[in-house]
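Protein in question reproduced for absentees:

***
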Amino acid sequence: MVFRRKALACLLLAVSLPGLAEDSARVYVYARRETEARSWIAVSCGGAVAAEVKQGHFFTLRLTPGRYSLSVADGVPLALGAVAGEDSFVRLDWHYQVGRPPIAALSKVGPDDARREMQYLAYVPSKRLHSSLAARSDPRAPTQPKLRSRPQK
């Protein structure tokens, strides 16, 4: 009887997991190659460090729908609304003032601009992921190389 309950619980969990992924939102957090972030900078989601990012890298958060606050230490935070089934893009930027060091700031970016900027970025190493919210590998579909050929005469 106990075995049947455990088997039924495992079956229900396996059936419900694909639906869980569809009900979540993905948030891509990235730093362009030309940014000031030459060392790893911790990015927090809801007060807890989720992952670290530096120039030329990105990571992905899988969040349940709702409102979240993303922040970096001594930087400008970003309030973000996660919508089920949608991708959001957050870029690490910098605010400059004369006579003061640059201040890290997170800003929301449109999908077209973000995908173009992220095209050649690398996924952060797994040792830089500190939360179960952060995906362990690059969720983007792998690009297929296209062979070019000379036109026939």
